[in-house]
Amino acid sequence: MNKLINEKSPYLLEHAKNPINWYPWSDEPFIKAKNEDKPIFLSIGYSTCHWCHVMDLESFNEKDVADKMNNTFICIKVDREERPDIDNLYMTMSQIMTGQGGWPLNVILTPDKKPVFSFTYIPKTSRNNNIGLMDLCDTVNYFWKNKRPELEKNGDTVIDAITHNNVKRKNEEINYESLIKSTFKSLKGNYDEEYGGFGNAPKFPSFQHIIFLLDYYKNYNDKKALEMAEKTMKTMRLGGVYDQIGYGFHRYSTDALWRIPHFEKMAYDQAMAIMAYTYMYSITKNDFYKNVVYEIFQFLKSEMFGNAFYTAVDADSENEEGRYYTWAYDEISHIVDSEFIKSFDVSKTGNFYDNNYRLTGRNILYFSGNPEEIHGKKMDLNIKKLYETRNKRKGHLIDDKILVDINGLTIKALAISSMVFSDKNMLEYAEKAADFIISKMYKNNILYHRYREGDVSIEGFLDDYAFFSSGLLYLYEASFNDMYLKYFEEITHEMVKKFYDSEYGGFYETDHPEVVKLKESYDNAIPSGFSIAIDNLVTYRYLNNKYDTIVDASLNSVYEEMTSKPMFFSATVDAFFKKLRFYKIEAGKETLDSVKKYYPNNYFVISSNDGKISVCDINKCFIVEDTKKLVKIIND
Description:
The chain is an alpha+beta fold. Helices cover about 50% and strands about 10% of the residues.
């Protein structure tokens, strides 16, 4: 056993029996590295990561590799989901150093935490111009003993680049409408007309782009925006990137057709999907989208809930990626009818390719028929039979960490859906998760990041405060329970106090940084903490304008990046729709007709006069004298 045996993270516990002398991130390994004059081997991954499993089986469990690594390095393992601050810091550094990043992320550090080399997956032995772990040990050992000043200079250059990026600020008036339109133009330019989605393979769902497109359609009646969103959402739902049997989205598609997925299922993707498909249903009233929402909700309830929502489901089972989700022809042909076989492109040779683009003889299920025929008595019976059969297979790991940021997104999603579908069960699950976090993970004005097996640990990061606050705000709107608004205001106040950069604007990721403070404003697979924080403060503007200066300064701090790469800020720019709407409200230009088509809020402040406000839903308006809160409309 190594030092990971006392950790709570499922990912770290997976490596506790490696012959490598792994340490968790703490002061101890850095002190040891300094005393023994050794570099650090930092390996960052997560429990449901396929290539992390590959490195574990191929290298980290091998004694010859362990001997070399233990002699060369002090070795540290980090769960990126437990410590997103460390992951984001060294991922940013890796991208500066090499132009790329991914998981597992393996970084060679000096004992004072400066990066000197960065790699993603490393094979055991060198091949195809990729250095192997065995050779890497020898190479690093040589450089460490003979060219250390050059290595440390490289690390200093990376740190200087991050520090310089933190001080950017463009003090000028922002043209919000221009940024909205340039974001749409950027998405349109990157849109795949044939298969939907954005860019080439690999393709991520990027639901924040879809939500932006739907808001764009709502505000400008641009049918191209709706078309792009609809094609993407239908193609993804019918593709292999969606689990056709147990429901829920896999992390991304390795091909442009949305057919061959990377199989892990992340709770945050399910939350973003629920929001996007709910929004689409509210526009189209097409039950296809409503069914997707309820399928994902069923998956979350059955596999990913216990007190609050779990983190992820593993890609691998039986030491093979996707084994749980794929089918040999003989396995499936006697369970379902021939029409199902044809509709899902199941064949004797298989349709599922491995990482070297070779057919495996197994089939991933994707639907090639009419989207409206994905449900029906016959189809649902076939799906049920396959679900029951698949459940008898050797299971895959569920990472049962409860993380505040991921729960915040999921609470928000279910709160929104509960309003659109008038579904008390969705609201109940959102409230259960929120109440658990408030009671167990929020103490003395500190929000904690992780809960597992009764252990609460790691002070929260920007994402925790921003995402959970967002969940509370929408939960208040859905329930009109004043408690949730109270906690939203309290936690938002703490977020600003802890993370806001009062000198240059924007938000730091943590108030207890390692090496250097980091700001991350770009959206990735999901919206950034920055974009959710901005959206929260803009939405709260309907009740209180106390954060106006902070919003403006923060947007100025990323103005240059937003104008040059608007697609990477689609979630931030999406908040501009609310910001522009509020200005219209103040100017008295908003009308009930325009409010009727606006989403996600069900209730809208229309005007403010003499301490009174008009509050409307899509059916009626009424006057409220208490300007401090919205009140629920009673349809009697």
